[in-house]
Amino acid sequence: CTSVVAEDDKGNLLHGRNLDFGLFMGWDIKNKSWIISEKLKPLVVNLDFKRNNQTVFKSTNFAGYVGMLTGIKPHMFSLTMNERFSLDGGYIGILEWILGKRDGMWMSFLTRSVLENAKSYEDAKALLAQTKLLAPAYFILGGNQTGQGCIVTRSRLLSIDILEIDLKLGRWYVLETNYDHWKEPLFLDDRRTPAMKCMNRTTQANISLKTMYDVLSTKPVLNKLTTYTTLMQVSEGKLKSYIRDCPSPCMPW
Amino acid sequence: QFIPPFTEDCRSDMYPPSGPTFRGDVSWYTVDLDSPPRERWTALITDKKTALVDVMQAIRDLANAFVPSGKLIELVDITLPFMVNTLPNPFGEEIRGISDVSGIPLGEVVLFNIFYEVFTV
After folding, report:
1. Which of A141, A190, B17, B39 to pair with A159, CA 20 to 30 A apart?
2. Do the chains contact at B65 and A219, CB–CB below 8 Å?
3. pLDDT per position as a tens digit, A31-53
């Protein structure tokens, strides 16, 4: 996965993500693609969650999946989640759950309840940082005011780090793939460097949903695992998504 | 580069999406949070039933590739329905509704929904 939140020079927060899934879950030799990734693409849908006929939040999802990986609460915040690998992983959480220790939350149920119930960017950030989880994760959150963009790096129990947009430091965007931002990514899977190179080349003056789509379309940020790209703009309550392909030559991950 | 990681120059003018990296647009559905959890996903799942059955079959094939006896899927179908009772509201009821409409065994819909945690295995 790749998620990015950027602030343009007018103070708008733009949020884009590639949802990559299906690694090592069966390779289709003839079509040079991952089997599960290809089977997921027809299930990609945009959802408008309504209460009293009013939109509460919108999401890009896989039909049949009741949790949320990508969503926006119009005019309030946008949220995506990327996988985080850790030895202290979800299987421990599941084991605890089976043994009756159920004070943690399932990751995508947390994102769903934050999108449904949080009242602000700060409220959402606190819930994502402090709620106990069954599995580690990265939460990438965008807001509706200048400076509101962050990556929450979570272990199952703790919030390990929160990296925020900081215009004074020249950090006009935050970008997450699947590795802690203070560490080098796995050399076999460095999508961060090419993504940041393209963001820096775009510059804050030229960043828009259009140019963010360009960054998310650059290999290997776009790869064989990429099922969809979503672009969100909180100030306009806008969510748009596109099903992707990556014709060979293209990185398997 | 024509060797891994196949990095390329930063793309431009990819928007509006078109060409070989754009498979298609995504359709919109409404989920009514005022309706009972068990009925919220009926319209969507009715529409997407074939594709959902398809992906579950692919996951079943994958599991059987690891455990040819089919015992792994049997385990999922026998034990995960019990787990649905432990899931917080409204998720347990919504998952039941999806199983009802799709005809996919409840345990396998539970697996699809907790896959992130299971995948770490």
Report:
1. A190
2. no
3. 999 999 999 999 999 999 999 99
As beta bridge partners, residue A161 has A153
Residue numbers of chain A with a pLDDT score lower than 70:
none
**What value of ipTM does the predicted structure carry?**
0.94
Q: Is some CB atom of chain A closer than 8 A to the CB atom of B66?
A: no
CB A194 within 8 Å of CB B7: yes
CA dihedral sign, ordered A58, A133, A93, A15: positive
The sign of the dihedral angle between the CA atoms of B109, A244, A47, A195 is positive
Partner-chain contact B44 A47, CB within 8 Å? yes
Cβ atoms B54, A27 nearer than 8 A: no
Q: How long, in residues, is chain B?
A: 121
Chain A residues with CB-CB distance to B119 below 8 A = 83, 90
**A1 labelled catalytic:** yes
Which residues from B are below 8 Å from A86, CB to CB? Answer: 120
**Pairs of CB atoms within 8 A across A/B:** 201
Residue B78 forms contact with A (CB below 8 Å) = no
**Is the Cβ–Cβ distance between A116 and A77 less than 8 Å?**
no
Question: Which residues of chain B are modeled with pLDDT < 50?
Answer: none
